[in-house]
Design a protein that fits this description.
Layout lengths: L4 E6 L1 H5 L3 H10 L3 E8 L3 H7 L9 H8 L4 E7 L3 H9 L12 H5 L8 E3 L3 H11 L7
Antiparallel strand pairs: 1-3, 1-4, 2-3
This protein binds 2'-deoxyadenosine-5'-diphosphate and magnesium ion.
2'-deoxyadenosine-5'-diphosphate binds next to helix 4.
Length: about 140
């Protein structure tokens, strides 16, 4: 599978804290092109479905509650080596462990409210992008 796309969400904490513009600026300056984008809110049901892989984890309920607590920005991003390069740009899941200058280091509040999502594989990027976008919405 080609590795030139990844999927991201700017999470409810970063949206509420006014960081949409700053985060998109970092993403674009890092060389990612926007293939698809929308401002949207997940419900508990749709957040639960998106994060179904984490169903057995102890933080699943907290995660679903948080991700449906306010609007998000969902986007498909395009760049060579997109998945790996984007994970590098956002930093570790726990912002206290995220490298200096990464998006989570700069903007995340906690391990749960950690500002951004980034897909962990090209396969999952395709699944996650298709969860939000139809073929007509991808450019
Ligand atoms: P990542 O988002 O870095 O891929 P993940 O896939 O392990 O991390 O977890 C998905 C999300 O779940 C993560 O972005 C925030 C939340 N999460 C992970 N570990 C958590 C924890 N120990 N407590 C609360 N929320 C957590
Ligand atoms: Mg993950």
């Amino acid at each position: 599978m080609s590795n030139n796309k990844t999927f991201t969400m700017i999470k409810p904490d970063a949206v509420a804290n006014g960081h949409i513009g700053a985060i998109l600026d970092q993403i674009i300056k890092a060389g990612f092109k926007i293939n698809a984008m929308k401002y949207i809110a997940l419900t508990e049901q749709t957040a639960g479905k998106f994060y179904e892989v984490h169903k057995e984890r102890p933080f699943y309920g907290e995660l679903v509650g948080f991700m449906s607590s306010g609007p998000i920005v969902a986007a498909i991003l395009e760049k060579d080596n997109a998945v790996e390069d984007f994970r590098k740009l956002i930093g570790a899941t726990d912002p206290s462990k995220a490298e200096k200058g990464t998006i989570r280091h700069l903007f995340a509040e906690s391990i749960g409210a950690n500002a951004v999502h980034g897909s962990d594989s090209s396969e999952n990027a395709e699944i996650e992008g298709s969860f939000f976008f139809s073929a007509l919405e991808k450019f």
